[in-house]
Specification:
The protein has helices at residues 11-18, 107-110, 124-133, 139-156, 177-191, and strands at 24-27, 38-41, 44-50, 57-62, 70-77, 84-91, 96-100, 114-123. It is α+β, with helices and mostly antiparallel strands. It has a 5-stranded antiparallel beta sheet with strand order 2-3-8-5-6. Strands 1-4-7 form a 3-stranded antiparallel beta sheet, with no helix packed on it. The chain is elongated and about 65 Å long. Mean pLDDT is 79; it is low at 5-10 and 16-20.
């Protein structure tokens, strides 16, 4: 977990920030642009994101410059909103970005009616460390790998090894194995869209 808003800006920069209106916005595909963020400290804001299971990615952007050598960190939290996960950052040199959330396949998040999005203005160097240490989210790739693994586990479950084949390198399976797997997959997916992510 990232320590949300863990670095305080210096007093001079806080004063500059307190005189500014909201300097950023959030765009979730298919939803109205969100510019209303609740300011909870001179350098910190918060907004709620309803139905996070429907949000695969979002665009976050600066609508006005921020103080030099500073950047905007974006975080999210699940109830009780005490543990914050780092999502990404923007700055004056890169004032907008699209962030993949991973929420659509995150079993805990997908059951929630809302998550909180936290925004913090922090020194560029502090956020650079978080960006460099954050593993990339490629939920499409992970889902594809889990589907392939699920198919392999299903085929493997027949466990009829070929006779007379050196080192048992081939499996003997029914000719309709793919049809049976597809039917099974669709039924399990209908009951639980996240079941495949638990394939080991």
């Amino acid at each position: 977990n990232a320590e949300y808003m863990g670095t305080e800006v210096v007093e001079k920069e806080k004063k500059a920030l307190s005189s500014l209106s909201v300097m950023f916005g959030l765009v979730i595909p298919g939803r109205p642009a969100q510019l209303a963020f609740a300011q909870i400290a001179p350098d910190k804001w918060m907004a709620e994101v309803p139905l996070p299971a429907e949000v695969a990615e979002f665009c976050f952007f600066l609508s006005a410059p921020i103080p030099p050598n500073m950047a905007v960190g974006v975080y999210y939290a699940m109830p009780p909103f005490t543990a914050w996960e780092f999502v990404g950052a923007v700055n004056n040199e890169r004032p907008s970005d699209i962030f993949r959330t991973g929420w659509t396949m995150h079993e805990e998040v997908s059951k929630l009616p809302v998550v909180q999005l936290g925004v913090s203005i922090e020194p560029v160097e502090s956020l650079k460390v978080l960006v460099e240490n954050k593993p990339p989210i490629d939920i499409r790739r992970e889902f594809a790998k889990k589907v392939a693994l699920n198919l392999f586990r299903f085929i493997e479950s027949f466990s009829q090894r070929g006779q007379g084949i050196a080192n048992n390198e081939m499996l003997m399976v029914p000719t309709n194995v793919l049809d049976r797997w597809i039917n099974r997959f669709e039924e399990k997916y209908r009951l639980d869209p996240h079941f495949v992510m638990r394939t080991e």
